[in-house]
């Protein structure tokens, strides 16, 4: 090899390494098959057929499989590809694939396994476990106890509502990973499939000040920053799936922004918001959903909630979310653009339920406006007051618990907040 070629090769290697290290995104065209996996071996055997009309998406583009179950999607390497599960199938393994490190010629298949859908669908929504190895919290034993209790409900599946781990938004990388590893390990104990949601605490490296004297400033170009680490562990931070006749849309209702704090410093923080990218994606997703299909939304920060009235909207929590237009303000603990979602995205659709966490209280607000007839529920929390007993707002308190939801005949049949009997530490 002559010197010139060697130099070009070296430059190319360095360039590719740099690209990977800063997590830049490459265009890719990914194709594959969504198929029945009757023998559950994870591969498509000769006797197994592809599944037609299944929605596959990378959170931007939405495509469907052809008669043979094949799909092809123009995408980017930084995205996560997922199958919007049909109502009578679960994935064998994960319902998503990370695209980082893949090439256009790689085949990405999704083996699915049929499940029996009962007429009455029972599922568990649990939120805000805030897993932490902090000994006084005893969170690991608490979560194990919660899982044991929830498993006894024999739900069709589990839905989490975010803040899976505590303070990944301000601890250093090894500690954030330790907490995500912990959640992943403990969630192996569920006796039915689990669908996760991202919370504000699950956004790695938002805060600049760190904890306990440890300051790890995470750059926004770091692939793990924000929802990056969550995606690495649990897949897409927003997606949809079907169960029976119901269509679920899980949103990332946490946006990160720069704002001016009361000290006058410019700081990074989060606020309740559904990004334009998600709304654009959801519009495409909904094109494959009929107007009659009952829709259930999930997101960590609530779309609607009453509890902040009792806490005086927590002083200082109304923030400017746009440094260029500081007059644009929002109360950070409720989603800013709920009206857009309800009036535009869901206009003419059949929303029946919206589930959220974040406030750690339990409330169910009935929104019946002539067009929509839905419940907006904040589903308490697994950790109560961050593992130190019942959550209190004003004169009210709620124990550590979860929500048991029953669906029937295309509607919401019943819901109930269930305490799992945990006693948090005394402060
Ligand atoms: Fe929380």
Descriptive report:
It is a single chain. The protein is an alpha/beta fold and 427 residues long. It has 2 domains: 88 residues, Sandwich (Immunoglobulin-like), CATH 2.60.40.10; 300 residues, Purple Acid Phosphatase, chain A, domain 2 (4-Layer Sandwich), CATH 3.60.21. 18% of the residues lie in helices and 30% in strands. It contains 7 helices and 25 strands. The chain has a 6-stranded mixed β-sheet with strand order 12-13-16-19-21-20, with no helix packed on it. α3 links the parallel β10 and β11. It is globular and about 60 Å long. The termini are far apart. It binds fe (ii) ion. The site of fe (ii) ion has 6 residues, from loops. Fe (ii) ion (FE2) binds next to loops.
Secondary structure elements and pairings:
Elements: H1 3-21, E1 27-36, E2 55-57, E3 62-64, E4 70-76, E5 80-84, E6 89-91, E7 96-98, E8 110-114, E9 120-126, H2 139-151, E10 158-160, H3 173-186, E11 194-195, H4 228-234, E12 239-243, E13 246-250, E14 254-260, E15 266-272, H5 276-286, E16 294-298, H6 307-310, E17 318-320, E18 329-331, H7 338-345, E19 350-356, E20 362-368, E21 373-379, E22 391-393, E23 396-398, E24 401-408, E25 411-419
Parallel strand pairs: 1-8, 9-10, 10-11, 13-16, 16-19, 19-21
Antiparallel strand pairs: 1-4, 2-3, 2-5, 5-7, 6-8, 9-24, 12-13, 14-15, 17-18, 20-21, 22-23, 24-25
The structure holds fe (ii) ion.
Fe (ii) ion (FE2) binds next to loops.
């Amino acid at each position: 090899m002559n010197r010139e070629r060697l130099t070009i090769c070296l430059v190319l290697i360095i360039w590719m390494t740099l690209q990977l290290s800063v997590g830049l995104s490459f265009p890719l065209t990914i194709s594959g098959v969504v198929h029945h996996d009757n023998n559950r071996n994870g591969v498509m055997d000769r006797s197994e057929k592809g599944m037609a009309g299944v929605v596959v998406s990378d959170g931007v583009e939405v495509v469907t499989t052809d008669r043979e179950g094949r799909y092809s999607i123009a995408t980017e390497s930084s995205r996560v590809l997922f199958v919007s599960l049909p109502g009578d199938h679960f994935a064998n393994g994960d319902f998503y694939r990370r695209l980082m490190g893949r090439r256009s010629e790689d085949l990405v298949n999704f083996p699915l396994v049929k499940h029996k859908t009962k007429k009455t669908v029972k599922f568990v929504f649990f939120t805000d476990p805030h897993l932490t190895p902090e000994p006084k919290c005893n969170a690991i034993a608490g979560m194990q106890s919660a899982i044991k209790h929830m498993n006894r409900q024999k739900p069709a599946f589990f839905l989490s509502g975010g803040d899976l781990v505590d303070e990944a938004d301000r601890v250093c990388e090894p500690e954030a990973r330790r907490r995500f590893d912990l959640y992943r390990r403990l969630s192996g104990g569920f006796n039915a499939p689990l669908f996760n949601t991202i919370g504000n605490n699950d956004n790695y490296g938002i805060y600049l000040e760190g904890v306990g004297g440890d300051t790890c400033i995470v750059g926004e170009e770091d692939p793990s920053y924000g929802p990056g680490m969550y995606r690495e562990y649990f897949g897409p931070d927003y997606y949809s799936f079907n169960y029976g006749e119901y269509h679920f849309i899980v949103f990332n209702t946490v946006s990160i922004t720069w704002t001016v704090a009361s000290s006058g410093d410019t700081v990074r923080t989060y606020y309740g918001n559904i990004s334009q990218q998600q709304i654009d994606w959801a519009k495409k997703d909904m094109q494959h959903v009929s107007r009659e299909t009952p829709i259930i939304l999930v997101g960590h920060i609530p779309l609607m909630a009453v509890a902040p009235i009792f806490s005086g909207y927590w002083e200082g929590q109304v923030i400017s979310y746009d440094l260029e237009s500081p007059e644009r303000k929002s109360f950070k603990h409720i989603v800013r653009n709920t009206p857009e979602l309800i009036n535009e995205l869901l206009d003419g659709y059949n929303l029946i339920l919206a589930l959220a966490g974040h406030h750690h209280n339990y409330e169910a607000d009935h929104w019946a406006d002539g067009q929509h007839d839905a419940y907006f529920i904040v589903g308490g929390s697994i950790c109560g007051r961050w593992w130190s007993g019942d959550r209190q707002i004003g004169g009210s308190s709620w124990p550590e618990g979860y929500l048991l939801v029953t669906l029937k005949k295309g509607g919401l049949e019943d819901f109930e907040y269930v305490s799992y009997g945990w006693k948090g530490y005394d402060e």
